[in-house]
Amino acid sequence: MSQSFEDKIVLITGGAGGIGQAGAKEFLDRGASVVLVDLNEEALKQASENLGSDKVHTITGDVTDEESVKNYVEETVEKFDKIDVFFNNAGINGPFKNIKDLDKKEFDMIMNINTTGVFLGMKYVIRQMEQQGHGAIVNTASNAAYIGSAGMAGYIASKHAVAGLTKTAALEVAGDNIRVNAVAPAAIDTDMLSDIQNNLTPGEPEKSGEAIKQGIPFGRFGTPEEVAKVVAFLASDDAKFVTGSLYNVDGGMQAD
Ligand code: NAD
């Protein structure tokens, strides 16, 4: 049977996006209250409506801005007294250009959201989890944490960094009853993937979609719900001896 999250408080960044919302639904279904943080206020309203639960609280925030991060952590603790689970998930894929054509501004933007955002989130959430004496953090890395990919320097570098941050944080808090892990999804059917397809084959997303599927041993895209189940496992006591790990949710891509 799936572990219950009754009376647990789950904080999710990128909470209005595909994987964030699926995570919210999984934790809500298991009894938790969830706090969704996202830059996109409209999408947050829509997410809250989609989830249709009075156990959803939303905060408009920017994971790259230290004050905003402090604020989303403080607001969560003011309202709910604690943070049991932190799903540190906001991210973008960024412009698709080879390194020689990529502006520093573009590279910095991806690194700021995908890496600095994950760092800042952990910085303030770990302080809170140390005070309360427990917690579980799940960062969203990617298949991109292991591989190179032409035209995706910012995304690849940023997700390699998330893997490093995850392992380092896990060691720093190993004695504090806090676990830190990451999921490493690949080709999950969300707006981000549609964006990638549209960039690879403009106007013909199905074409690159088929090519991507051919590189996945399961021959299909993953669903946000399939990622959410692994996140909930990592956040639960079922994974109580698991820390510093990257869990692949990729239809076999890393095995190939
Ligand atoms: P998505 O675009 O549906 O969701 C991402 C969310 O992050 C959006 O709601 C966006 O508004 C939010 N966001 C962006 N910048 C932000 C900021 N500065 N502050 C706060 N929120 C911000 O994409 P998704 O597929 O749900 O992606 C979620 C995570 O999963 C990302 O970290 C992504 O890199 C990772 N991932 C996705 C895939 C995939 O195939 N979809 C594969 C591997 C990893």
Question: Can you give a write-up of this model?
Answer:
InterPro entries: NAD(P)-bd_dom_sf, SDR_fam. One of its GO terms (molecular function) is oxidoreductase activity. Belongs to the short-chain dehydrogenases/reductases (SDR) family. It is built from 8 helices and 7 strands; from the N terminus they run E-H-E-H-E-H-E-H-E-H-E-H-H-H-E. The chain has 2 domains: 9-188 and 223-244, NAD(P)-binding Rossmann-like Domain (Rossmann fold, 3-Layer(aba) Sandwich), CATH 3.40.50; 190-222, no CATH class. With 256 residues, the protein is an alpha/beta fold. The longest helix is centred in the middle third of the chain and has 29 residues, at 104-132. Helix 3 (66-80) runs parallel beside helix 4. The chain has helices spanning 18-29, 41-51, 66-80, 104-132, 153-172, 191-200, 205-214, 224-235; strands spanning 9-13, 33-38, 56-60, 85-88, 135-140, 178-185, 246-249. It binds nicotinamide-adenine-dinucleotide. The site of nicotinamide-adenine-dinucleotide has 31 residues, from helix 1, helix 4 and helix 6. Nicotinamide-adenine-dinucleotide is lined by residues 13-14, 16-20, 38-40, 43, 61-64, 89-92, 113, 117, 140, 142, 185-188, 190-193.
